[in-house]
Structures are given as structure tokens and as C-alpha cells.
Amino acid sequence: MNFKLPIFDVENLNFNVGGVNILSNVSLQIFNSQYIAIIGPNGGGKTTLIRLLLGLERLNSGKIKIYGKTHSEFKEWYKIGYVPQRASHVDINFPATVLDIVKMGRTAQRKIFSTMSKEDETLVLDAMEQMDIMHLKDKMVGTLSGGQRQRVMIARALASQPEVLILDEPNTGVDVASQNRFYSLLRKLNKEKKITIIFITHDIGVIADDIARLFTVNQKVITCNNPKQALSCDEMSELYGIEAHLIHNHKHGH
Ligand SMILES: Nc1ncnc2c1ncn2[C@@H]1O[C@H](COP(=O)(O)OP(=O)(O)OP(=O)(O)O)[C@@H](O)[C@H]1O
Fold first, then answer.
1. Pairing label, strands 196-200, 20-30
2. What distance in angstroms lies between residue 238's CA and the mean position of ligand 1's atoms?
């Protein structure tokens, strides 16, 4: 693999809805094995940016390349694990067990109608182990709590052995101990398995030491290549508003 080829390459992206600019003139690159956090105020455009990167929204102007290809040319979607913000909202009547859901993470790599190999099964069990949901294996997913469902969706993404893991505020409704375990897991996936992580979060203070770069999104995107320095940068405070100061203080309170 050409390590200089960005996984995502965005050039002068503009996106508006009904004449309202949601994202303006965004250019950024995301490279292999980077751990990137995306922060910004509510409604700033973080989820929209991810949806545009994945081709789930149509940009009005500009260019997005994924592994050097346009969205229609790109076929290796199994390389990208995406856990959307609302992944924890599952219909209570949804007829699948936790195991069924995590197994879906293997379907993209299998030939249609082929059965799971031993290796597939091991990867499914490993992903469940990592997310600490083995004890929930036979439960119907609709009966779980929001935090448990979120872990199931992340396990499904991990089972597909993604090169890139995109997480949209995955810790909503999760207790602090589980959150810390989860941050350690992300650190490990990035450091040991070299998985590229793109993480939308409001919890930047806790992961500031782990991340390589920070994108602050509020219609515009500011990239900070030294996240710890960025936490005090005026430009970011301006873009993010009062929360930048809170984050900064939180970090320095430790
Ligand atoms: N397809 C769409 N149609 C209408 N409005 C949209 C669409 N996509 C995004 N928006 C608007 O764009 C703005 C940015 O939304 P987005 O969900 O990306 O923000 P966010 O930064 O992820 O917010 P949060 O932190 O609350 O999750 C919002 O005002 C949203 O209503």
C-alpha cells in the first residue's frame, strides 16, 4: 500500500441544504494509521462531514477521494467500519440476537450464501470479547440497554477487521468505567493494529494524549496537528465557543 496516499482526501468541499451552508470550503486529508478526533458544537456539521466522506450525502461542490478513488469507483467498503450516532436505537422487536448482529460484520468478506469459516467465527468471538459482550451473546438485541447496543454495533464493526473505524459519539449513555475501557481499546487498536480511527467526541480532554490530529468542525473545519497545543489555541476557541475553554480546563485539571 502506498502510505502517502490519503484514505480520505477532501478538496474545497461545500454542502448546503435549502440555501443554508452546513459545511463551507472544507479541505482535509486523513492518512493511514492516524487517530483523529472530531469535535465541535452541536449542529456544527460533524456527522454531516462523516456522511459526506462515506458518500451518504451528496456534496454541492468540491471533491472527495477515498483511497484515491471516487465514491462510485471505490468498492472495498468492508475496509471501513462505521458506527453511526444512532446505532443504539434498535427496534425492540428486531428479531436478531447479539451474536447474529456481530456475525453480520463478516458478511461483506464472504461469498454470498457461503457459511462462516472457523476464522470468521474466531473473529466474531474476538470482537465480542474485546467489547465485553460475550455474556449477552444469545440476548435479543432489542432488549439491551442503549450502551450495550452501542457495544454490539462496535463489535460488529471490529469483526469486519476494518482498516478504518469511524465512531460517532459512541459513548452516549455509557458509564465512566466502560468509557475508560473503551478509550484503552481504541488506543490499542490504533497503536498495535494500526487501525485508522476517526472519532467524533465531546470528551476530547480524556483522549488528547492518544490522538494525532484534531478537526474542529463548525461549518468550517480547522485542523490542528498538535492537539494538546490546539486545546489552548485561540482560533479553536473562536470556532468552538465557550466549550474550548472548558475542555482546556478539564484537561489541565488532571
Ligand atoms: N440532509 C439534511 N437535511 C437537512 N438538514 C441537514 C441535513 N444534513 C445535515 N443537516 C443540518 O446540518 C447541521 C449539522 O448537523 P450535524 O448532525 O452534522 O451536526 P453535528 O455537529 O454532528 O451535531 P451533534 O453534535 O448535535 O451531533 C444541522 O443543522 C442539521 O440539521
1. unpaired
2. 20
Average the pLDDT over 9-31 and give the result: 95
Domain that holds residue 180: 8-252
Question: What integer pLDDT is reported at residue 54 of this predicted model?
Answer: 96
Complex-level ipTM beyond the 0.90 threshold: yes
3-state secondary structure of 13: strand
**Phi, psi values for residue 176, rounded to 5°:** -60, -40
CATH number at residue 24: 3.40.50.300
97: three-class secondary structure by DSSP: strand
CA of 55 to the centre of ligand 1 (A): 15
Residue 3 domain flag: no
Q: Is 84 in the pocket of ligand 1 (CB under 6 A)?
A: no
The string of pLDDT tens digits covering residues 45-91 is 999 999 999 999 999 999 999 999 999 999 999 899 998 887 666 66
Q: Is the CB of 40 under 6 A from ligand 1?
A: yes
Half-sphere exposure of 154 (CA within 13 A, CB side): 25
